[in-house]
Amino acid sequence: MKRWIFPGFLALLFAAVLLAGLVPWDRILPEKEELPADAVEIVTLDTVQPLKGDYTIQYDDPDDPEGGVTVTYHVPSVGDFPMHYDSIDDVPRSTIMTFHTPDGDVVVLFGDGDSVLVPAAENASIEWEINSPGTVNVEGDTSYCRFRSGDPENWVIYLAGGGMSVDAYTAEHPRTFYTTGTAWNGIWNGAFFVKGEINPFADWSYLLIPCDTADCYIGQGEFIGARETVLHHNGYENFTKYLESFRQAMVGMNAAPEKILLAGSSAGGFGAAMLAPVVLEIFPDTEVTVLVDCACLSADWQRIARDVWHAPEEITDRMTTDDCVTDALVAAAETYGGRLKILYLAVESDATLIQYQEYLNTGDFAISPEARNHYNETLKAAVKRLREAVPDAGIWIWRRSPADALSTPVHMIIPRFGSKYDVGNELLTNGLSWVWNAVMHDAPPLSFGLDGFLDD
Q1: Domain spans of the chain, in order of start
Q2: Per-residue CA distances from 28 to 66, 74, 175, 449 (Å)
Q3: What's the CA gap between 264 and 415, in Å, rounded?
Q4: Does the model's pTM come out above 0.85?
Q5: Which of 13, 159, 371, 374 could disulfide-link to 358, CB 3.0 to 4.6 Å?
Q6: Which of 49-53, 395-399, 449-453 has the lowest mean pLDDT?
Q7: Would you call 333 helix, strand, or coil by DSSP?
Q8: Residue 323 phi/psi, 5° resolution?
Q9: pLDDT band at 456, cuts 50/70/90?
């Protein structure tokens, strides 16, 4: 029987080639292709097979009708697709991961028992999209993150920005207060992510998680809006599942990287600060740098996190003031000491955050002088507290005039790394070097933009 396995599998591949050209690439998965259980004991392809479009294989577990593994490959429209599969017994039965490659060839290796799916080293520049079991966005649809294979000992985990929903009214106003779907908004093409000389982290492994749950990445429950819209605040569960899949893919079940840069912008900055302890606990021997970018607002965060987002108690318990980000950073520094480095980026008179602050204050989503003053005072208090509680923290404030604050929208610094904005007499082209030096060296990072800021 086994001598017919390889020819049978090649026949299935040939059928997929004929059908794949009729299926355009999008996020709607094609129908599963069922393989007999006895045909997937060991399947090895040492030769190159040309394929096009999406190709799906369903591996069934004969001992568990509800088990099995579904793997979907998106193959380039031209070129070859080398594949090698080891025993299906090496693939965890509880894992369902979907991989898409927008361009380039793909080599997928089923792991050695400790890893889930490991991209081959020659695919270090390939961008992958992954779906892990149970990850959904705020609308209840499948959520995707991205990762890029690189140095398994050094990781960048980036939490993208995309707004938040804080009550029943905001829940009914997507696109105004929060993003929907799973979109990347061009962030992957910024200097912080490109593989080039401008980016000192170019060879690191990257995990990019979209802000698609409207809960600053810490929710784990549903919330019903004023018009009965159901929001799936699933950010915490998504984060932990993506991190676990990424960990297994990069280093295996029992290994850990040497360094992690956990960065986030806007709502992602809130998430990075509050999830840093999660990363530090999962990787007790790893040095973690948390980079918070433009995440400063004054609110009753404990109530919002508890009643709207249903965040874990270990996160809400650390919210002791109206500035949950500084609460989280100070608490993490006190708990983990030298294992944690803190970098804090902010824009004085941040136009986007001023609008959110006005809504939190008055219910009006707009820019006002009162909200600008409230935001700036909250930012000054955060900087003062960080400097006192975490003297080694690196702080970079983009200074702006009051006139600019009421007109030009400036928000998030990380996406502007590599550009030629003048920030405190330092160009943002130096921003990545500043972050790199902080991550790689023990000397405290320099602070920028603080001259006169705290005394204004």
Answers
A1: 1-123, 130-456
A2: 22, 11, 23, 47
A3: 10
A4: no
A5: 371
A6: 49-53
A7: helix
A8: -125, 90
A9: low
